[in-house]
Amino acid sequence: MSNFLAGAFDRAYSRLQRGAVGAVRRALPQRCELCAAPSGDDLICKACAHDLPRIGPACPVCALPVPGGRACGSCLARPPAFDGTIAAFAYAFPVDRLVHAFKYQGRLALAEWSAGAILAERLRLGRADPDRLVALPLSLERQRERGYNQAAEIARVVAARTGIPLLSAGVRRVRAAPPQAMLPWAARERNVRGAFACAADLTGLRIAVIDDVMTTGASLSELAGTLRGAGAAGVENWIVARTLPPAH
Question: Whole-model pTM?
Answer without folding.
Answer: 0.84
